[in-house]
Design brief:
204 residues; 11 strands
């Protein structure tokens, strides 16, 4: 059995929900995982899903809804850095924003925080907006930042909102990555006046 399939089967939950909703805006409640970080979250020295992992994604939650004909994609990710090997790749986040003709994606409400446990108390170090960089390419912009004050055992947390002026484009979603994911969830809310066909595929 491949390591990917083992991670897939060992995950606590992998969930995709596609629903049709009225066009009017409705309240969107936070997922039960999107709570405050506590001292208990720092206790595990390793995780059963992969005891040799350098980092573990505690949750990765995505949600799509429509605002008129714009697609709004929200993402919230929280990870645990177990050792220094994870710092180079995991602690730097890159977000690509498409630019094609008149279509240009925008990024809003970006927030990122590093949590550490010091003397039994959880401390927060928020990302300074001046530490967010944007590289412009021909067909996309790359927004990049690195979490501050990271240490072995740190928990990093980031969220953002991405707007796409293309009603036919729903962002793809990856449930498992190079680092094991304990909870992965993707919700798509489709207005009643639009019809989509959904297909699921697992690649091993």
């Amino acid at each position: 059995m491949s390591s990917f399939l083992q991670c897939l089967l060992a995950s606590i939950a992998l969930l995709v929900i596609t629903t049709k909703i009225p066009a009017q805006k409705k309240e969107r409640n936070k997922n039960k995982f999107q709570r405050e970080v506590t001292a208990e979250d720092f206790k595990p020295q390793f995780y059963d899903i992969d005891s040799s992992a350098d980092a573990v994604c505690l949750f990765n939650i995505g949600a799509v809804h429509y605002e008129v004909f714009d697609i709004i994609f929200k993402n919230h990710t929280r990870m645990r850095l177990l050792n220094k090997k994870s710092f180079k790749d995991v602690a730097t986040v890159r977000i690509h924003l498409r630019k094609q003709g008149n279509l240009e994606e925008t990024l809003n409400k970006l927030e990122a925080t590093t949590y550490n446990l010091e003397n039994g108390k959880v401390t927060e170090t928020k990302l300074d907006k001046s530490s967010i960089y944007r590289d412009k390419e021909e067909n996309y912009d790359e927004v990049k930042f690195t979490f501050p004050n990271i240490k072995e055992g740190s928990i990093i947390d980031y969220s953002y909102e991405q707007s796409t002026p293309d009603p036919a484009y729903i962002p793809t979603w990856t449930f498992q990555n190079n680092n094991p994911v304990l909870w992965s969830e993707y919700t798509v809310e489709v207005p009643q006046f639009l019809d989509f066909e959904s297909f699921s595929k697992i690649e091993l």
